[in-house]
From TrEMBL:
This is MMPL family transporter. Keywords: Cell membrane, Membrane, Transmembrane, Transmembrane helix. It comes from Nocardia stercoris. Gene3D superfamilies: Multidrug efflux transporter AcrB transmembrane domain. Belongs to the resistance-nodulation-cell division (RND) (TC 2.A.6) family. MmpL subfamily. The chain crosses the membrane at residues 174-193, 200-223, 229-250, 278-299, 305-329, 360-378, 514-533, 540-562, 582-606, 627-650, 670-690. SUPFAM superfamilies: Multidrug efflux transporter AcrB transmembrane domain. The keyword Transmembrane applies.
Length: 720
């Protein structure tokens, strides 16, 4: 499997020049190609709510306003100057192309458009088109609003404005995260390797991988919908995985060079062992992340695009670029190399022996701790992200805070039902009456202003607007129950329901329909990969189970922190009492894929030790000793990158960054260094059981290391 890579004999300078040329081209693409990535995509485009969302602007735009203009003044909305300004703003807003259904407190006498203290009035409108068109229209709105008296405050809000602000904030925060993470990663690598050249190589690979992947995503964004949030995964996986793989190859090259004293033979041996492990790990992670393509929401699919591309780019750069660098730099990479204790006397070996003295105790205790961490996930509540994902100081967030506190609750419909043209009036009246009897519904009305109403016009679709009782928050469980009841009645009549809660319920339904299949495929891919690596059914099953334990523990911690609001002060976010419905499946696939990286490192070395003749206990001790340093170093680096991303001011990004950081840290420490050796100690020789036909089939594929080169004497500088 590694012969084409190991046989590379092209001039090292030419190979590196090609990589640098691709890097320069990617930088050029990043500057010249407009960014078409979007900040939405959490809805199933085929769901009823998504279909209605595309229609409502032409039916009843006031039912689904996505643009608000808040006008405030000390004199209140009744002040003639404020009223004149409100009317002027309403008129100008209505003239912007793409804006429909403009209504304000000064043009329509609706109490819901006036704050309870009458100091603020609201202008609402609907921006038509997809997210890209809405962003362009929003820019035109900002430029086209007239200047008013300085003592009259004018603020823009609404879902379209929130999405644009989130998009801008993520880009700024991600740049800051990269600037903070890169020097810290370099410092860790300097500590690990003790030499500048060896430390710089993994960072260089990470930077190249991130830039090339971002360029490819920019181009892809003009062909399909790509979420701006995918940039976070590109940075995390691009830097984390590239550094992991480069760490493994640089470490192995230094070992081989120390033993062989010849650059070319050291490169060949490195690719035949560590290179094979990297390629195997990359194929597995790619397959796991590709599972996200099963979901219809482009927000989720974007993580598959970013993940697959960055893994392929990182792996190619590592397996092609690093051997060229090894050939070019040779002995300089070995500078700072520190010989550690033999495998049987290192720190990790001593720790593993402690675990193996009482393996059942450690296995049970660790499992109990992980289950306790996972317990909060049993009370998870799903919701949608809103303006509160922005920091409290953001202007748009402040606008929505005023809307929440000063305006009448339930001013907008909790749901709306699209009624086709030429519908039977009696049937619609019966449906309206039935919806009105749903617990929590107080009124079912036609929209206050139909779009372009004209007497005698051809019949056209309309909408029933469903108003909820005062005090029912749209994102609450009570609100979801109300809309769920409306959906059941409307769908029984063949009609479709729209609105924010309907979108949430449809998204949950899509995840519930596809999620179990996705999890099953991830588990099956992991099992197949680990079985081919170890030729043991028991070892593969155990590894998948302990991976699952670490993931559920991380999900429980996410619920405890973000849903329940613990640590909201130190982490700087506002808890809404729920988490985004797409978060668990993202964390499962991303964290599971990354944890497979650590699992492959340990199990590849464990299998190699076993095949070299070591008994079961010695193989465990040596495998942990020889990979413990790499895994902990890699976990520290990945945690640095993810926590830097998790420091974002956008809470959705914060959840992903901190959530995956927790999962990776728990997996690299508790699972790999405590639970795994403990369980293997309990199982004993049964660890290696497999049906003979399966064992022969796996052996023919020869996935494991060590076939192409004699193993180097272990002198791992990061293992003690």
């Amino acid at each position: 499997m590694t012969k084409p890579v190991a046989a590379q004999r092209g001039p090292a300078r030419t190979v590196l020049a090609v990589i640098l040329a691709l890097f320069a081209a990617a930088l050029t693409v990043g500057v010249l190609v407009p960014d078409a990535r979007l900040a939405g995509g959490a809805a199933d485009p085929a769901a009823d709510s998504a279909v209605v969302a595309r229609q409502i602007g032409g039916i009843a735009p006031q039912a689904d306003p996505n643009l608000f203009v808040l006008v405030s003044a000390p004199g209140g909305v009744d002040d003639p100057r404020v009223a004149a300004a409100g009317k002027l703003l309403t008129e100008r807003l209505g003239t912007v192309d793409g804006v429909v259904g403009t209504v304000s407190a000064w043009t329509v006498p609706l109490p819901a458009l006036i704050s309870q203290d009458r100091r603020s009035g609201l202008i609402i409108a609907h921006i038509q088109g997809d997210e890209g068109a809405q962003d362009r229209t929003l820019t035109a709105v900002r430029a086209g609003l007239p200047q008013v008296d300085p003592d009259i405050g004018v603020r823009i809000g609404g879902p379209a404005a929130v999405r644009a602000e989130v998009q801008s904030t993520i880009k700024t925060d991600l740049l800051l995260a990269e600037l903070v993470a890169m020097p810290l990663v370099l410092l860790v690598l300097l500590w690990v390797f003790g030499g500048v050249v060896a430390a710089v190589l993994p960072v260089a690979v990470g930077v190249i991988s991130i830039v090339i992947t971002n360029a490819l995503l920019l181009v892809l964004g003009h062909a399909v919908d790509v979420s701006v949030f995918s940039q976070n995964l590109t940075t995390a996986v691009g830097l984390g995985l590239a550094v992991d793989y480069a760490l493994l190859l640089v470490r192995r090259f230094r070992e081989e060079f120390r033993v062989r004293g010849d650059t070319e033979s050291a490169v060949t041996a490195t690719l035949a062992t560590a290179g094979r492990t990297v390629l195997f790990s990359a194929v597995t992670i790619t397959a796991v992340l590709a599972v996200l393509l099963l979901f219809p929401m482009y927000f989720v699919r974007s993580f598959a695009y970013a993940g697959v591309i960055v893994v392929v780019v990182s792996t190619t750069t590592v397996l092609v670029g690093l051997p060229a660098a090894f050939r070019l730099l040779g002995p300089r990479i070995v500078q700072g190399f520190r010989k550690s204790d033999p495998a049987e006397r290192g720190y990790w070996a001593a720790w593993t022996r402690v675990v193996l003295r009482r393996p059942a105790v450690f296995a049970v205790a660790t499992t109990v701790v992980l289950l306790c961490l996972a317990a909060p996930f049993a009370s998870v509540k799903y919701g949608t992200v809103d303006d509160r994902q922005l920091p409290p100081g953001a202007d748009i967030r402040a606008t929505h805070d005023v809307l929440r506190t000063d305006f009448q609750a339930g001013a907008l419909p909790i749901a709306y039902v699209v009624v086709p043209a030429n519908s039977d009036p009696a049937r619609i009246m019966a449906l309206s009456a039935a919806i009105g009897r749903v617990d929590g519904v107080v009124a079912v009305n036609p929209p206050p202003l139909q779009a372009d109403p004209r007497s005698g016009a051809t019949p056209r679709p309309s909408a029933l607007l469903v108003a909820a009782a005062k005090g029912i928050e749209p994102t609450s469980q009570r609100g979801q129950d109300v809309v769920s009841g409306v959906q059941r009645l409307a769908r029984a009549d063949g009609l479709q329901v729209g609105g924010g809660i309907a979108t949430l319920l449809d998204t949950e339904a899509a995840i519930g329909r596809i999620g179990p299949l996705a999890v099953a495929i991830v588990a099956l891919v992991a099992f197949a990969a680990l079985f081919l690596l170890t030729e043991s059914v028991v070892l593969a099953v155990v590894s998948v189970i302990v991976n699952g334990l670490s993931l559920t523990a991380a999900l429980g911690a996410i619920v405890w922190i973000f849903q329940d609001g613990h640590l909201s002060g130190p982490l700087g976010f506002t808890s809404t009492g729920s988490i985004d419905s797409t978060l668990p499946i993202l964390v499962v696939c991303i964290a599971f894929g990354l944890s497979m990286d650590y699992g492959v490192f340990v199990l590849a070395r464990l299998t190699e030790e076993r095949r070299s003749g070591a008994d079961h206990r010695t193989a465990i001790v040596n495998a942990i000793q020889r990979t413990g340093g790499i895994i902990t170093s890699a976990a520290i680096i990945l945690a640095i990158v993810l926590i830097a991303i998790g420091a974002s001011r956008v809470s959705a990004t914060k959840m992903i960054g901190i959530g995956v950081a927790l999962a990776a840290t728990v997996d690299a420490t508790v699972v790999r260094l405590i639970l795994t050796p403990a369980v293997l100690g309990v199982l004993g020789s049964a660890t290696w059981w497999s049906p003979e036909p399966l064992r022969r089939w796996a052996a023919r594929l020869a996935v494991h290391d060590g076939a192409a080169a004699a193993p180097a004497v272990e002198v791992a500088e990061v293992s003690s």
